[in-house]
Design a protein that fits this description.
With 232 residues, the chain is of the alpha+beta class. It has a single domain, classed as Trna Endonuclease, Chain: A, domain 1 (3-Layer(aba) Sandwich), CATH 3.40.1350. The protein contains eight helices and nine strands. The strands form two sheets. Strands 1-2-3-5-6-9 form a six-stranded mixed β-sheet, covered by helices on one side. Strands 4-8-7 form a three-stranded antiparallel β-sheet. The N and C termini lie far apart (38 Å).
Length: 232
């Protein structure tokens, strides 16, 4: 079993992953966060651009910290602090924005469909299991979930670990699962209209049973190639 990466180390990997995907999407990190300038967090006067930058740089103002401590204390945040949970959410939102750019470059019509697509930190009752995107492929609209690997785990371990509920939701929705390795600039896509075979095991970090998809290494291809596969 390999050594678990702590949260601060993982944040560095995630920020590097954002920079790498910015190159793929042909946008700069500044352009990415500046798109939120002037947009306020719901029911506050907190600027989203400023909050996102401060979370990534771990330089929250006192007012921002009070807000995060109030809204991000949720039972599903695992062992993360409210600030860590909010930072992880923010990173994922920026990665989804970059994925939108990748879809646009590949001329794949798409729309964010997650409950947090407005980029507000939701209360527990507002959070749903809806897929991240809807993509239009020909005349068909498909649900698409995106996951990211920032540490080369998929390639090194030759497997992907999915939480039980995520795997089941993908199967129920007959969705597409897009995986992006932000360090290698590679990706894979799995069509859950045919549910893949998995191996169930206990995941120490999640503290839950997971479905492991093995043989991921051979599925990883350049992102542009995978985008073309999605359109097939």
């Amino acid at each position: 079993m390999e050594k678990e990466v702590n949260w601060n180390e993982l944040l560095i990997h995630k920020k590097n992953g954002i920079k790498n995907l910015c190159v793929q999407a042909q946008v700069t990190p500044s352009q990415l966060v500046d798109a939120y300038k002037g947009r306020l967090i719901a029911q506050t006067s907190i600027d989203k651009r400023d909050l996102f930058v401060h979370l990534l740089n771990q330089t929250l103002t006192e007012r921002e910290q009070e807000y995060i401590d109030k809204v991000c204390v949720l039972p599903h945040r695992d062992n993360r602090t409210a600030t860590q949970y909010a930072t992880d959410l923010t990173v994922n939102w920026l990665l989804e924005d970059l994925t939108t750019e990748l879809f646009n470059k590949a001329e794949i019509p798409n729309k964010k469909s997650g409950a947090d697509s407005n980029r507000d930190y939701l209360e527990e009752g507002q959070i749903t299991s809806a897929c991240d995107f809807k993509v239009k492929l020909g005349t068909t609209v498909r649900n698409l979930e995106v996951i990211y690997d920032h540490t080369n785990y998929w390639y090194r371990q030759d497997k992907l670990d999915l939480r039980l509920n995520k795997h089941n939701n993908l199967a129920n929705d007959k969705a597409l699962l897009l995986g992006i390795d932000t360090q290698r600039g590679s990706a894979f896509v799995i069509d859950y209209r045919v549910v893949p075979e998995t191996v169930q095991s206990y995941h120490e970090a999640y503290g839950k049973t997971v479905h492991s998809l093995v043989g991921i290494k051979q599925m990883l291809q350049p992102i542009t190639v995978v985008m073309d596969r999605i359109k097939e």
